[in-house]
Amino acid sequence: METPSDDAKNTIREPFLKAPASKGGFRTVPFIIANEALERVASVGLSPNMILYLTKEYGMETAAAATVIFSWSAANSLAPILGAFLADSYVGRYRMVGFGTILSFLGMALLWLTAMFPQARPDCDQFSRICEPPTAPQLLLLYSSFGLMSIGNGGIRSSSMAFGADQLDKRNNPHNAETLQSFFNWYYASISFASLIAVTLIVYIQDNLGWKMGFGVPAVLMFVSAISFYLASPFYIKLKARTSLLTGFVQVLVASFRNRHINLPISRATNEPWYQQPL
User: What residues form the membrane-spanning segments (predicted)?
Assistant: First the structure.
């Protein structure tokens, strides 16, 4: 029986040596989870004490400050819906997460600037805590920071988990379901722990070290979140956006309207109309 020659061995091995490294996999998961976890620490940590910041530093009435915070919370809840639609239909998940990360950082940086520079806030008496009404530029800076953070949250939270699943979804892998389940478990455990850190450590920093440090730490964490996400950019699987979901929805509405007068055939057994799938 002949043994394979050295040339034959090299022919067999050479394709494996020259094959490009595959993208995705578990090596990208820590960067994606770190991006989401740091974003949660930064954003969730700003909410509990925000009403104190608006009433004490901006002289807002409690009702007005609560209205601002409720509007901000509503925008944070609605933005991921729009973000998911844009990511799946036009932009793609990678770009949506990256876009959201940058905008969230810019929003937190603007909020930190309102604490750093006295000119960004209305003048308040140190003893009576009576403040002058905030000017239009001061409110514009404040509301711009809230708006950027809401848009950024919509970009990250709408696509981060799905983007992580894209890195691990190997249909030919017999353990694909277990792999995805493990990722989802780690993902939810990470954001839960991040939320716990946010409402304890970040709030503690704001209460004891002041607003400059209390808003500066979330901004730094958001910057680290952006760096973490883009460090693994060469290794990500970046799926392209599919056909617009809105287009398909409109097509269904148009087809339903055009076929509204079609009579369905009658079932002989029940004497009721039934739907027959076209051949």
Answer: 63-87, 99-120, 140-165, 186-205, 217-237
Token readout for 73 is 């919370």
| Residue 151 placed within a domain | yes
Residue at 12 is within a domain: no
Q: Distance between CA atoms of 110 and 145, rounded to whole angstroms?
A: 5
Q: 124 φ, ψ to 5°?
A: -125, 140
Per-residue pLDDT of the chain (279 residues; tens, 9 = 90+): 444 444 444 434 433 333 344 787 888 999 999 999 999 999 899 999 999 999 888 888 899 999 999 999 999 999 999 998 888 888 889 999 999 999 999 999 999 999 999 888 888 766 666 778 888 999 999 999 999 999 999 999 999 999 999 888 777 777 778 888 989 999 999 999 999 999 999 999 999 999 999 999 999 999 999 998 999 899 999 888 776 666 777 778 888 888 877 776 655 555 555 555 555
Give residue 92's identity as a one-letter amino acid code.
G
Domain assignment present for residue 124? The answer is: yes
Question: What's the domain count of the chain?
Answer: 1
Domain containing residue 43: CATH number: 1.20.1250.20
Place of tokens 């020259």: 18
- Model-level pTM greater than 0.85? no
Assess if residue 59 is contained within a domain. Answer: yes
Hey, how many other C-beta atoms are within 10 angstroms of the C-beta on 224? 15
